[in-house]
Amino acid sequence: MIIQEMLAQVRNLDSGDYAECGVYQGMSAEIIAASKHQDSFLYLFDTFKGHIGHGEFDHETSHPDGNYSDTSLEQVKERLKAFPNVIIISGDIRKGILNVLDGRKFRFVNVDVDLYEPTYAAIKFFKSHMVSGGIMRLDDYRIDDCPGATKAADELLEEINFVGHQVSWWTA
Question: Which end of the chain is more exposed for a tag (fewer CB within 10 A), N or C?
Answer without folding.
Answer: N
